[in-house]
């Protein structure tokens, strides 16, 4: 049992939770993993953590607890030296219906504060907190493979654009829904989606009209890299990709994620400079020698044992 699963099982109480099958399979998670109430966290295979949105009866709508729990969960994953890759999916009928529209009424429509400045400051805090909920995915050095089935609405699009690899099912659709509820998307879609799909015209069309984009178009525009016939085959596919990543040197994998993200936001020259500085130290890893030796011997990276990172 890795430390994220252990932390989730033990919570802050330091108690064993005997009823919980701590290590469950990908598709059979029974419910949220304590102390989380909106997330199920399991370890389906060595070095792989599966995080599942788990409010299926509310279509995985993102309530107040969710915004907090995601940050706790990904901060733990970032620190968990047993975890090398994350698979993220949704329980039930669909991936997510986006922000919980019942909660929004309390938080944003009745903001606290004695005057305009204080109300604005209060709202600023909420939006920043919500932004951080998805930025933690990007800040986490472990790659995140997201698997979308059914619908991915509103904040769901913010979430998936912060992930590293996106997969979906044939029946999946995506919707930048925010204009329909009277707000400009403010927790990542407008910043990340243009970097994910090449056509700014298409981004503008999706964000300004809130039209649904179905899986075939999502594949053709590059939002997802693979489309699977159904959820079961997608989860199997996600696990296979995660298994490939988990078998590689964690020094190489995490350095790749961090440098790809850096280069996305900088010039080629700046990216190359950052890379040089990065690998000045990281090339001194024993993983390089081990991996090169395995390649020379025509072995798979899966045959190499790497130290924890
Ligand atoms: C600072 C703010 C930053 C964040 C901004 C984020 C913005 C957004 O996310 S905008 C998008 C908001 N979401 C929506 O507008 C989607 C609303 N839901 C739907 O359209 C449908 O539920 C959906 C098409 C996703 C699924 O339809 P289906 O027929 O499968 O389910 P329903 O019968 O409609 O719903 C089942 C129960 O789930 C509850 N529910 C669904 N979505 C939400 C939601 N977004 N918030 C809260 N609750 C939701 C729905 O009320 C049903 O509950 P119950 O009646 O108790 O069974």
TrEMBL record:
Q: Which domain of life is it from?
A: Eukaryota
Q: Which UniProt keywords apply?
A: Acetylation, Fatty acid metabolism, Isomerase, Lipid metabolism, Peroxisome
Recorded GO cellular component terms are:
mitochondrion; peroxisome
Name the predominant localization: other
For whether the record's keyword set contains 4Fe-4S, the answer is no
InterPro entries found in the cross-reference section: ClpP/crotonase-like_dom_sf, Ech1-like, Enoyl-CoA_hydra/iso, Enoyl-CoA_hydra_C
The UniProt GO MF terms for this protein read:
delta(3,5)-delta(2,4)-dienoyl-CoA isomerase activity
Q: In which pathway does it act?
A: Lipid metabolism; fatty acid beta-oxidation
| A Pfam family of this chain | ECH_1
**GO annotations under biological process?**
fatty acid metabolic process
Where does it reside?
Peroxisome
The UniProt catalytic activity note for this protein reads: (3E,5Z,8Z,11Z,14Z)-eicosapentaenoyl-CoA = (2E,4E,8Z,11Z,14Z)-eicosapentaenoyl-CoA; (3E,5Z)-octadienoyl-CoA = (2E,4E)-octadienoyl-CoA
The family assignment reads: Belongs to the enoyl-CoA hydratase/isomerase family.
Q: What does this protein do?
A: Isomerization of 3-trans,5-cis-dienoyl-CoA to 2-trans,4-trans-dienoyl-CoA.
Q: What is this protein called?
A: Delta(3,5)-Delta(2,4)-dienoyl-CoA isomerase, mitochondrial
